[in-house]
Write a structure and sequence with these properties.
Length: about 190
């Protein structure tokens, strides 16, 4: 076959055909080489990193609740700890001290529930935080509860982070119930 015809009935010589064929074969071979190189690179690539250890923040406190007689705090049977709750069996003032543990690595706060009413402490940290926009208290954080009714139940839970609205103030006590006076109220009748 010496002569080939295209659609316009023009003759293509054998030399022109073999040049076209050689260029096509070289193009196919280049595509195969590129495909094999890309496949080899894809399957031979590996990534490694050193040992990465993720450590989450830890905020934990120890709680000490003692009955206060005047300026003296005494451990007494007036505080009973059961099922994660403190029961204040007598009326009077109680001092609550929240101390961060040595494993504490982040800031946190405590939710104090007294007879079903929740209060939040300010942020408690191991050391004084410099240039902090939040109300920050250094550990230990101490506040008082005035229990004007017996069998007051106190529950304290620690949370890491920043409270929405701190309501426990170290300078003002949490007052439970109404103060009892020694005399009964007198009613006037007409």
């Amino acid at each position: 076959m010496k002569n080939f015809f295209d659609c316009k009935d023009e003759k293509i010589t054998e030399k022109a055909f073999s040049q076209s064929l050689i260029i096509s074969v070289i193009g196919i071979l280049l595509c195969i080489v590129a495909l094999c190189s890309m496949t080899y690179a894809w399957f031979s690539e590996s990534t490694s990193s050193g040992n990465n250890t993720l450590v989450s923040g830890s905020f934990d406190v120890t709680v000490d609740v003692t009955k206060t007689d005047g300026d003296v705090s005494t451990a007494s049977a007036a505080v009973v700890f059961e099922n994660g709750k403190y029961k204040l069996t007598e009326t009077g003032k109680y001092t609550v001290t929240l101390t961060t543990t040595t494993t504490t690595t982040v800031k946190g706060y405590c939710v104090v529930t007294v007879n079903g009413t929740q209060y939040q402490t300010g942020v408690i940290v191991n050391e004084v935080a410099q240039n902090d926009e939040y109300q920050t208290r250094t550990s230990p954080f101490t506040f008082t509860i005035e229990a004007n009714q017996p069998d007051t139940v106190v529950e304290i839970e620690a949370y890491w982070g920043i409270p929405a609205s701190p309501t426990v103030n170290a300078d003002a006590p949490i007052v439970v119930g109404t103060a009892q006076s020694g005399a009964e109220s007198n009613e006037t009748t007409e």
